[in-house]
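Archive entry. Fields below.
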Amino acid sequence: MIYRENGQFKTSYGADQQIFPIAQDRWAVLAIIAFAFIGVPLLADEYMFRAILIPFLILSLAALGVNLLVGYCGQITLGAGAFMAIGAYAAYNFLIRIDGMPLLGALILGGLTSAAMGILFGIPSLRVRGLYLAVATLAAQFFWDWAFLRIKWFTNDSSSGSVSVSNLDFFGWTIDAPAEKYLFCLGMLVVFGLLAKNMTRASIGRQWMAIRDMDVAAEVIGIRPMWAKLSAFAVSSFFVGVAGAMWGFVHLGSWEPAAFSVDRSFQLLFMVIIGGLGSIVGSFFGAAFIVILPIFLNQMLPALGGLFGVSISTAAVSHAELIIFGVLIVFFLIVEPHGLARLWATSKEKLRLWPFPH
Amino acid sequence: MKIRSLALAVSMATIGLTSAVTSTAAFAQAKEQFFPVLVYRTGAYAANGNPWANGYVDYLKLVNAQGGINGVKLSFEECEFGYATDRGVECYERLKGKGATVFQPLSTGVTFALTDKAPVDKIPLITAGYGRSESQDGSVFMWNFPLLGTYWVAADVAIQHIGKQAGGLDKLKGKKIALVYHDSPFGKEPIPMLQERAKMHGFELMLLPVAHPGVEQKATWLQIRQNRPDNVLLWGWGVMNSTALKEAQATGYPREKMLGVWWAGAEPDVKDVAAGAKGYNALALQHSAEPKSKVVADVLAQVHGKGQGTGPKEEVGQVLYMRGLISAMLAVEGVRKAQERYGKGKVMTGEQVRWGLENMNLDQKTLDAMGFAGVMRPVQTSCLDHMGASWVRIQTWDGSKWVPGNDWYQADEKLLRGMVLNASRKYAEEKKITPRTPEQCKQ
Amino acid sequence: MAFFLETLIGGLMAGMLYALVALGFVLIFKASGVFNFAQGAMVLFAALAMARFSEWFNAALGGDSLLLANILAFIASGGVMFVVAWVIERLALRNLVNQEGATLLMATLGITYVLEGVGQTIFGSEIYAIDVGMPKEPVMMFENLFEGGILINKEDFIAALIAAALVAGLSLFFQKTSTGRALRAVADDHQAALSIGIPLNRIWVIVWCVAGIVALVAGIIWGSKLGVQFSLATVALRALPVVILGGLTSVPGAIIGGLIIGVGEKLSEVYLGPYVGGGIEIWFAYMLALVFLLFRPQGLFGEKIIDRV
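PREDICTED_STRUCTURE:
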């Protein structure tokens, strides 16, 4: 009843093509963003910030980047973790090697370095496709894992290969308390989310989608596959690289290459596929699902056991966590192969028609 | 179907969020000292993580069975992190909210991540036998306690032992020593010390990294066969150790020439190689397998005897079990010491526990009385020395059990001190920390 | 020269073992178009089952006949793998027919988690040994030909022989039996196969079963070599470059690819590794596969991809 677009007339192309053409959507999104900026910092405690919200925001950003490549351009990647690592280590080097480098500058430069590497490792996509490409991108993953362990220059000759960053300073604002870190991540995510959304609506995004749907056909109608694919790799790697730098700088503070291992790559791909390929909001859903579910299971299972008077051992809990996580993934893929975003869209559709079935 | 599953997902997410919030709100009760236990009972390193965690928890249960610390009962909670750094940090945040006053992560990666967080949260970090080597310097690393030994101690003693077998450290000249290490901060930690020693004595150091988790070592051992080093140092964790021993067997490298770090010298490392590992030596962080010690008898009688044992009975007294048990003992003794100053029978805060750990003085008599006779030597910490002892023994696998050697080694104080100070000063500079002066230390 | 040969032989033998895991991938991909990431978890699961059953049977039999216990354990583990295959087909795959490759890949990753969790819950998460009487000590050969001789690991040698025998057996099975023909028909065209009365679902169960048996053999060989523990699941990552190098749909490709990757990575690690700090074999294998792919995008023996608008 409330969610109805009756009476909202579009009188210009601009109004028709805006991101949220329905007024209720606009208000809802604004309200959510406002709540995230004002309400959440007042409500959440330190654990919530550090263990759930900050990882969620940063991984959403990374998932967004992966979604641009996998969901919009159709190039499967299993090397996203490596590009997070490149972003993190490049930003680290820019920060410590150049005097007076501002935090934002280091993050952006880290992202740009990652973008350059993305182009380089995207070149095989011009010849190789599908699952072959997915496995080929693993080459990037393992190569960079190795490089950051072995090449001492990258880690500023730290004897253990672990690097750390402290005293984050964003134009005079010292990002220190968990709530500040949260706000910083949220701000970045909003900016990048808007950027991504607009890109997918612009000509570049349409080129990517044409390539995804059928690259030979796209070539026939005059889209340059090389440009489209490599730009997708570059933009995606940029997003992922910035997210990686934030993961290192803001979330972990001190990290080693294992923080960006192949498991991270799988995790990101999971987010994108569970969330919904080719959907911005899907990236957020996917990230929330993958970040929160294991932690939730890990805390809920012992509590559940306590309810029935059985104490479950830690080992059993963690195994059950694995099993339930796996089962839920398969379950979601079966119920809705197009991800949580599709479920969201369907329910919105239903809401619009409510109380009528059709 | 679709809508229903959506509703399911939404409600699940809500429950998840609320439970996460409420669980942190539920603080530990007042009269109990809370011990967080970070464990990995699943994943690639579970075989080694399990006995450590069992020993740790069993000791806490033993203390409770004996009436707690001056009447203060201990409570604890395990948190599984699977040896993954980010999950470890999540566990830390979760258990911190429940009133944790001392953390022992049993992972070098997590230690690195927590070193920056500990001073902010005012929670001391015990890393008995692992962690950052330079954190021995308590004037810079106020909250880190690498009690009993660091990897630099291990590396130093390893070279001393090899030198002794060769008939003197000067005999090492021109020899070749290979370091087969886990390619992570853990495995790289000893390298600076070994390089220092190599320069001093003129032996050649071969570095052979093995990628996580360490099941692929064929090429590594082919290189060892090609270069025929006089000794091999094994710096592995988990499955990497048993794989290394199997490859050594397969390439015919004498196991007697192999010396493992104390994390490569436990039952899970050699059990399934059995006779194939006979003669293999490993450093012992003071203790070896100690099935006959009194503390083990106590655990068996007062914890396992009442059906409250954490793991299988056979495991009690094994090397990693003992390591966990001793780690728990050190934390408990830190609390006990703190109580001496801040009030017996009270629950200590993180800051008070830190003071207790920094002023710990466990002499042989106390240790013997607690049932650690023959297991441990005295530990005495100070502001400048957060390690407290650097005693190391060598143990040998005889095909079915670990046999501790009789010689006790100690790290070369002068060499170690110099390196620790160098590294900790560099760290202090990077992080803009002013090292504490002796006066500040007394507070 | 002797050392070079030794490395080469070591590489070939390691390659045979990779091929064994790769074979599992290829079988399933051929028949159902699923890139089965759970192959590694299946190897772990099978090896865990084998190790524990052997231990339990041995204890139940009073410990006097290890051979009998092993044979019984092999049969029991085979049965377990059959159940696993059936459950996967029934609960997951059947409901995912006609989905995109990426979705299927993710589903198998989900299956990986389930298998790892279930395996560790039932069989434990310690390190276990499989003792099938493989010789562990090395032998020296051609000592009169080269100085110092060539060291050959008997265990690897036997493992390579078993792998070769299994491949030969599978090829025969595919070429000569009617089930094999049905399998090939399904691989060729699902709908055509369905229309001439080949039961698709049963074929898939059979394929997953065969892949399960391959995983069991791989698990026994790897488990006997490395001990049975969680990290066995990571052999899947080592076998991936083999699969794409050889082509996702080709059984001989898996073998040749395995040999190329095995030799390539061992030679690179031994001869190139010391100059760049070592530890390069894993990414070198992937890079090697990538270079091959640039010239033949569908792998060495993969079916040619023809694009039509």
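CURATOR_NOTE: Residues 2-295 of chain C form a domain with the ABC transporter involved in vitamin B12 uptake, BtuC fold (CATH 1.10.3470).
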